[in-house]
């Protein structure tokens, strides 16, 4: 594989289809090593570059996969404590999930429902919706809680994470809370599971 750098490709404003093709050719471990090198405003630049690249719930939990955890490994905008996972599953008629991260004991699990909604800019866009409490969860997951419990109200309360597709496994998101965009972004890369 050639020496591709996602961070450098974003800086160079490389065409998003070219970035996607490079990421698609990688293993999960290689994609993860690429996203963890992208921090701060570079994530925001990628969010803008990927604008309009929509996807549905099957991107986060492949069709036909029921009651099975699908882990999306993440890197947020912050300089420290920036690794996390968003764990998704299709339970009943919903795609649901929670956040596995360092401060979960203080913030709660940040339970969410994943769905396509009308985005803040108009048009359909996939949202990680913290304003909706899941109806069900996997038995191995933390107990379902509204996202606004404990200190989670400052992190998840009233929030939607709006997502754009970068490649077949990598997506980029930005939180929108109480009518305004947050100056924060994050990248996810999906680890494939067997159906």
In short:
This protein has 195 residues and is of the alpha+beta class.
What does this structure look like?
With 195 residues, the chain is of the alpha+beta class. The protein has one domain (6-190). It is 23% helix and 30% strand. The protein has seven helices and nine strands. Strands 1-2-3-4-5-6-7-9 form an eight-stranded antiparallel β-barrel. Strand 7 (170-177) and strand 8 (180-181) form a beta hairpin.
List descriptors.
195 residues, alpha+beta, eight-stranded antiparallel beta barrel, 9 strands, globular
Q: Assign a percent range to the helix content.
A: 10-25%
What's the arrangement of strands in the largest beta sheet? Answer: 1-2-3-4-5-6-7-9
**SSE pattern, N- to C-terminal:** HHHHHEEEHEEHEEEE
Uncertain runs: none
Please tally the β strands and state the result: 9
Helix run count: 7
Number of domains: 1
Query: What's the main sheet like?
Result: 8 strands, antiparallel, barrel
Rounded to an integer in angstroms, the radius of gyration calculated over CA atoms is 16 Å
Q: Topology of this structure?
A:
Elements: H1 6-11, H2 16-24, H3 28-35, H4 40-49, H5 57-60, E1 70-76, E2 83-91, E3 94-100, H6 104-107, E4 112-118, E5 124-129, H7 152-155, E6 159-165, E7 170-177, E8 180-181, E9 186-190
Antiparallel strand pairs: 1-2, 1-9, 2-3, 3-4, 4-5, 5-6, 6-7, 7-8, 7-9
């Amino acid at each position: 594989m050639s020496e591709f750098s996602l961070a450098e490709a974003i800086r160079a404003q490389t065409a998003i289809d070219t970035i996607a093709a490079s990421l698609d050719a990688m293993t999960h471990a290689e994609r993860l090593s690429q996203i963890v090198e992208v921090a701060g405003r570079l994530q925001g630049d990628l969010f803008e570059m990927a604008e309009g690249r929509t996807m549905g719930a099957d991107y986060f939990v492949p069709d036909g996969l029921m009651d099975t955890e699908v882990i999306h490994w993440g890197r947020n905008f912050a300089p420290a404590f920036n690794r996390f996972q968003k764990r998704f599953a299709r339970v009943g008629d919903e795609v649901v999930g929670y956040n596995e991260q360092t401060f979960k004991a203080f913030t709660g699990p940040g339970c969410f429902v994943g769905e396509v909604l009308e985005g803040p800019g108009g048009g359909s866009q996939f949202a990680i919706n913290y304003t909706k409490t899941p109806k069900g969860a996997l038995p191995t997951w933390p107990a379902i809680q509204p996202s606004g419990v404990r200190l989670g109200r400052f992190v998840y309360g009233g929030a939607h994470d709006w997502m754009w597709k970068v490649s077949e496994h990598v997506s980029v998101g930005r939180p929108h809370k109480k009518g305004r965009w947050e100056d924060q972004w994050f990248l996810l890369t999906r680890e494939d599971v067997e159906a």
